[in-house]
Amino acid sequence: MGATSQSPRLRLVPSEALEAEAKSGTVLSPRAAAPVEATAVDELGEVDRALVERARRSEAQAFELLYRRHAEFAFNLAVRIQGTAVDVEDVVHDAFLRARERLEDLRDEAAFRPWLGSIVVRLVRSRLRRRKLLTALGLTTPEPVEIDSIACAGADPEARALLAQVYALLQTLAADDRIAWTLRYVERHRLETVGMLMDCSLATAKRRIARAQKFLTDHFVDPFGKSPA
Question: Residue 224: phi, psi to the nearest 5?
Fold first, then answer.
């Protein structure tokens, strides 16, 4: 897509650089929890299984423990997708409320964390769509990217500029494409996990990521005056 007055060509570096930074862990905040697939089921899932079974028997303390174990994961997932911490506490609160109400729907008790993640993704998606509609109607303005919420403390100015510009461009994408790309290249999830978190097929997840990647690539311009490889 070419640049227009409504979609200016942002000065961004190639997406390969972002992926390399994400893999090295030098840009993104270490506060964010590890991707779902990186957590060993035998260490995390079995404890969750026991807590879910207890929570289903209406043991309030069990669900409180689930909250303590996974609240930070849910918070950071929402922040990474949005690029801002605005309203994230409300998102996390609502996600846990829905999880508690629908606990009987969870088929694999050991998979509480990724299941909770899918709830967070749905809530954030609704929020992004609503915000984009209000912005298009002139009723609000795009939310500023909060680099301090998503970048690690040691990120250099170039890396921080990269993140700020990438997230600014992501704001112009459809919510589904934006979320899929973020889950894949920022959260570093496998494609199968992206599909699970977004409740879509693997093929659909791939299409969304590809659309977002093409849009980003078409609009990247090196902000530091380096010649493209």
Answer: -115, 15
Asked whether 120 and 92 are in contact (CB, 8 A), the reply is: yes
Phi, psi of 172 (to 5 degrees): -90, -10
64-95 confidence digits (pLDDT tens):
999 999 999 999 999 999 999 999 999 999 99
d(CA 225, CA 81) in angstroms, rounded, equals: 28
Distance separating alpha carbons of residues 151 and 148, to the nearest angstrom: 6
- CA gyration radius for the chain? 18
φ, ψ of residue 4 in degrees (nearest 5): -135, 175
User: What's the rounded Cα separation, in Å, for the pair 126 and 108?
Assistant: 26
pLDDT at 121: 98
User: Cα dist. 179→122, 160, 185, 206 in Å?
Assistant: 10, 20, 10, 12
Query: Is residue 83 a contact partner of residue 170, using CB atoms and an 8 Å limit?
Result: yes
Q: Domain spanning 15-219 has what CATH number?
A: 1.10.1740.10
Q: What is the pLDDT of residues 101-141, one digit of tens each?
A: 999 999 999 999 999 999 999 999 999 999 888 888 888 88
Report whether pLDDT(215) > 50. Answer: yes
Other CB atoms within 10 A of residue 118 CB? 17
State how far Cα 17 lies from the chain centre.
19
Query: Is the per-residue pLDDT at 26 higher than 60?
Result: no
- Find out whether 122 and 94 touch, Cβ atoms under 8 Å: no
Spell out the domain ranges in the chain. 15-219
